From TrEMBL:
Superkingdom: Bacteria
Keyword Oxidoreductase: yes
PANTHER family: DEHYDROGENASES, SHORT CHAIN, SCP2 DOMAIN-CONTAINING PROTEIN
Similarity comment: Belongs to the short-chain dehydrogenases/reductases (SDR) family.
UniProt keyword terms in alphabetical order: Oxidoreductase
Signal sequence extent: none
InterPro entries documented for this protein: KR_dom (IPR057326), NAD(P)-bd_dom_sf (IPR036291), Peroxisomal_Beta-Oxidation (IPR051687), Sc_DH/Rdtase_CS (IPR020904), SDR_fam (IPR002347)
Molecular function, one GO term: oxidoreductase activity
Name of the protein: NAD(P)-dependent dehydrogenase (Short-subunit alcohol dehydrogenase family)
Keyword Coiled coil attached: no
Taxonomy of the source species: Bacteria, Bacillati, Actinomycetota, Actinomycetes, Kitasatosporales
Amino acid sequence: MSGLCSERVAIVTGAGRGLGRAHALALAAEGAKVVVNDLGVGLDGTGTETGPARLVADEIVARGGQAIAHGGDIATTEGAASLIRTAVETYGRLDTLVNNAGFLRDRMLVNLDEDDWDAVVRVHLKGHFLPLKHAAAHWRAETKAGRIPAARVVNTSSGAGLSGSVGQGNYSAAKAGIIGLTLVAAAEMGRYGVLVNAVAPAARTRMTEATFAETMAAPDTGFDAMAPENVSPLVVWLGSAASAGVTGRVFEAEGGRITVMEGWRPGPTADKGARWSPAEAGEAALKLLAEATAPEPVYGAQ
Ligand SMILES: NC(=O)c1ccc[n+]([C@@H]2O[C@H](COP(=O)([O-])OP(=O)(O)OC[C@H]3O[C@@H](n4cnc5c(N)ncnc54)[C@H](O)[C@@H]3O)[C@@H](O)[C@H]2O)c1
């Protein structure tokens, strides 16, 4: 199959449903051979079922592409290592890793159990780190063998990680952590030919059904702005060799809109050249805040 990703092998985690499924189908449509990972968990991360990953792999094959299902848990060393192994042993190489799997356990902080904290931080943050680590080890070995890969990693953050979201303290912290991980991975892995970026998507999936229930396709054009398939073209391009030179960046993608997100940078500053007293520090802080740009509102804040 010809296309932007022909000759490439891609992994998509959590690709049995929602955004991951759309990314896997879009990568395959551009010629990639795809390892479709999904543990098949419920909305809150409980249970397991191999069905979703197999169905998507079958769908790709039915459309004339190549795909294999992988049902492992990406937040375990065994799951992440076997995922990378599946790509290399089945198709002989790995070019693109799309980290996407995850789930929610929303609660206000006062009601958030330690278990809900651990489960959500684990699946998103560790679930990004472990596949990234095992893919990086593979690409470093390729580089050492004299084969410099045009490797790409696309991580999945969220507006919750960028601006915060009421009732999602665990999720917002994990998704903000993914931005930090993306920046470090981009800085460390460029020497192995690996470019690492992140997307913060918005789309109607089972995860966001309630939030986006009202959104419908435009009656005149038929364009459904909240379809997960709208996010995939940017993911495919970032996952292809065509995105050469782009690394350590964060994009929001929703409907027909792509936005480069510009991160923390120094704002107004004052230097006394000596230690402040607390009262002086407070006075200086208030003066600087008066000059500073107001922060983006937290999602769901009154
Ligand atoms: N839908 C949105 O608007 C939106 C917004 C911001 C961020 N996101 C992020 O996009 C990603 C995809 O979300 P979605 O909306 O498609 O949700 P979804 O529930 O439809 O799909 C997530 C998939 O991940 C799988 N999964 C969960 N834990 C796993 C594990 N340990 N190993 C392997 N697979 C696992 C699930 O079985 C599920 O099929 C998530 O990281 C989510 O946080 C989504």
